[in-house]
UniProtKB/TrEMBL annotation:
Residues in YdhG-like domain copies: 18-113
Species: Maribacter algarum (ex Zhang et al. 2020)
Protein name as it appears in the record: YdhG-like domain-containing protein
Taxonomic superkingdom: Bacteria
Any Pfam family matching the protein: OmdA
InterPro entries to which the protein is assigned, alphabetical: YdhG-like (IPR014922)
Source taxonomy: Bacteria, Pseudomonadati, Bacteroidota, Flavobacteriia, Flavobacteriales
């Protein structure tokens, strides 16, 4: 299905906030943003960069501003989209069509567009991976099996950490031993714990 079809279907779908999100769409279509469809929501972009999305849920509807952290938020309406997870995205929630202040919303949209044009985007800082301690049981098994030990050293830090957590996460000794028995051949083959699912 084409993205334009998905957008049209999203807005046409029977929903308690259908008329309300149609109003938000009318506002955003007055701007220079391009309409597309991403992550199951109509998303509006500038030169391929995400600026905002219009969303609807059971109890509210709203606008996600992808770099909303830079908005002045004069009305104090923006919330972090997912506290502790998202750094830049801000969410403006509405609970009824009467909550829509067209002038204010258009102001926020235009400010978001200007911020995007001026390169005001939050660059996500990736956390540096840290090596997890290798449990004694796994360390001892690797010391006895030179092939597995060499293969383990060649694994990415991510894969090494997965194996360490897999053994450390078992509560009972017999579970740790059965897990160890399962993973030693995988390690020797240079495979990650969850490679089959990737």
């Amino acid at each position: 299905m084409e993205k334009t079809e998905k957008v049209e279907r999203y807005y046409a779908e029977e929903h308690r906030f259908r008329d309300a999100i149609a109003q938000l769409r009318e506002l955003v279509l007055k701007t220079s943003l391009e309409e597309t469809y991403k992550w199951m929501f109509p998303t509006y972009t500038l030169k391929g960069k995400n600026v905002l999305s219009i969303c609807k849920f059971k109890k509210h509807f709203g606008i996600w501003f992808f770099n909303g952290v830079f908005l002045k938020d004069k009305k104090q309406v923006l919330e972090n989209a997912q506290e502790g997870k998202t750094q830049a995205m801000r969410h403006w929630k509405f609970y009824s069509i009467e909550d829509i202040d067209k002038k204010a919303i258009l102001g926020y949209m235009n400010e978001a567009i200007e911020n995007q044009k001026n390169g005001r985007v939050l660059v996500s800082l990736k956390k540096k991976a840290t090596k997890k301690p290798v449990p004694k049981l796994l360390k001892d098994a690797l010391a006895e099996n030179t092939n597995a030990a060499k293969a383990f050293k060649k694994l990415s830090l991510y894969n090494q950490n997965e194996y360490a957590e897999y053994i450390a996460g078992a509560k009972q000794e017999k579970t740790k031993l059965s897990r160890l028995e399962k993973i030693l051949p995988m390690i020797s083959d240079g495979k990650g714990l969850n490679d089959m699912y990737r």
